[in-house]
Amino acid sequence: MDQFSAMxxxxxxVDLGSFSAAASQAGVSHTVLSRQVKQLERHLGAQLLTRxxxxxxxxxxxxxxxxxxxxxxxxxxAMSLELSEHQQQPTGTLRLGVATAFGExxxxxxxxxxxxxxxxLQIELHxxxxxxxxxxxxxxxxxxxxxxxxxxxxxxxxxxxxxxxxVAAPGYLQRHGTPATPDELTxxxxxxxxxxxxxxxxxxxxxxxxxxxxxxxxxxxxxxxMALRAAAIGALGIASFDRFIVHDALLNGRLVPVLEGxxxxxxxxxxxxxxxxxxxxxxxALLDYVQAYYSQARWEY
Length: 301
Known about the structure:
The longest helix has 24 residues, at 60-83. The strands form four sheets. A five-stranded mixed β-sheet has the order 4-3-5-15-6. The protein has a five-stranded mixed β-sheet with strand order 11-8-12-7-13. A three-stranded antiparallel β-sheet has the order 10-9-14, with no helix packed on it. It is elongated and about 75 Å long. It is built from eleven helices and 15 strands. By secondary structure, the chain is α/β, with parallel strands linked by helices. This is LysR family transcriptional regulator. InterPro entries: LysR-type_TF_proteobact-type (IPR058163), LysR_HTH_N (IPR000847), LysR_subst-bd (IPR005119), WH-like_DNA-bd_sf (IPR036388), WH_DNA-bd_sf (IPR036390). It comes from Pseudomonas juntendi. Belongs to the LysR transcriptional regulatory family.
């Protein structure tokens, strides 16, 4: 039995929650992984997993072995990185996950410089507005603007805040009037992001701390922030966006802020990546770069 390979297989099965998912990621059959884990259990003289029709469970011995297994595998990985001259600088393929709007509007501002600094890296972009399972998709780092991260074992490094604001096209406001109070918003159509739990509801707070919940009529909804941005510039109604999505449109006057005295809940830009004691150089290089880049104000108006 190749004990090191069996330990890798066992950890993969536990991390992904099933033999099928682990076999698919490893590019081997379900039978091969199951045999490796059974051989490992015989070698250790202890049952590591209990199997039901729906899911796997770690036994008490399995949980203890998993903790030691992770430490050993990460130490082996760290040793390999330190001993390999090839790994002394960022190399290989960096798989980067981003939301579609962030990919279209932000990456062009800093990714070329990052690639120029690390010319041995190849970048593989995964653009999606869904929260992707980083382990299953084998994504190294995901940059995500959100107000709530799902509970997981992933590491989330805060990069910067993301203000959310109401905007409209000047032509729309000229034809329909500019709302001066939150109550006046109810007479205007909202362009809503359909992926939100309540696309028509706004939670507003003014500088005195007064809060208002407003329900606006919906004229158009879409699952694409970029499509909503185009609709807002086309004067179809009022919309709420992270500032980075409309930053250039605010600068050139295609969109203007609405109700500037009232604020929507802010969001946060995170770098999310699998937990590991020893980060590969390519991942560390990206994290350090984006941390430094977004430490400066980027979306001032």
